[in-house]
Design brief:
With about 200 residues, the protein is α+β, with helices and mostly antiparallel strands. A hairpin with a 3-residue loop joins strand 3 and strand 4 (about 75-80). Helices cover about 15% and strands about 25% of the residues. The protein contains four helices and eight strands. The longest helix has 8 residues, at about 10-15. The protein is globular, with a radius of gyration of 16 Å.
């Protein structure tokens, strides 16, 4: 797992499908991810313009959590990848709850269907109780947020790819990967530029 994460971001993203993420008394099987290549010509990345206090953990080493707050209300979690000093990360977009279903349901009582509990990056964090406290934590150890290899690797034929979601730059780059046909994968919404003022 450490070797996978220390390599290029796209193979790392594909390799994270099917892996298990545990936190807050529950575990999800990762079903959807998005790759971000940092300063390497990827304007959609939080590290595109260089290191800041917010994105510092993205510059490595690999295997740590990059957690950020978005829209003033949601947490999202990424797995840092690539060589130390070169910013890249994989956003965990969706997962299937495989352990601690009762815990997750207590956290998200308004959700009617189990497949929707961690369907989307903010919902995944809410399901697992992940917030700012997880920023920078090492995911491959025995800490409060743990990432483990897939019980059964996802076959290459079952991996689908397409454009990333909700980004203004490089939104057509096909670096979103998901397990084809899995009901927990989030709905795709194409980026629509805001209308210019007239």
């Amino acid at each position: 797992m450490a070797a996978l994460l220390a390599g290029p971001v796209v193979p790392a993203a594909r390799g994270l499908l099917g892996c298990l993420l545990s936190a807050g008394g529950a575990t999800v099987r990762i079903t959807e991810v998005e790759a971000y290549a940092g300063t390497a010509g990827d304007p959609a990345s939080h590290a595109h313009r260089g290191r800041t206090p917010r994105n510092a953990v993205m510059f490595g080493p690999a295997g740590h959590a990059y957690v950020y707050f978005t829209y003033g209300m949601h947490w999202c979690v990424n797995v840092v990848t690539g060589p130390d000093g070169e910013a890249s990360a994989v956003l965990l977009r969706a997962g299937e709850v495989v352990e601690g279903l009762d815990v997750v349901r207590a956290r998200r009582p308004a959700v009617r269907r189990d497949v929707d509990l961690a369907r989307g990056p903010a919902r995944l964090c809410a399901a697992l109780g992940i917030d700012r406290a997880a920023y920078g934590s090492y995911l491959l150890g025995d800490g409060p947020v743990r990432l483990r290899p897939a019980v059964q690797p996802v076959p290459e034929a079952a991996v689908a790819a397409g454009p990333r979601v909700g980004v203004t730059g490089a939104h057509d780059v096909p670096w979103r990967f998901w397990i084809a046909g899995d009901p927990t994968v989030s709905a795709y919404r194409r980026h629509v530029p805001r209308a210019a003022w007239r």
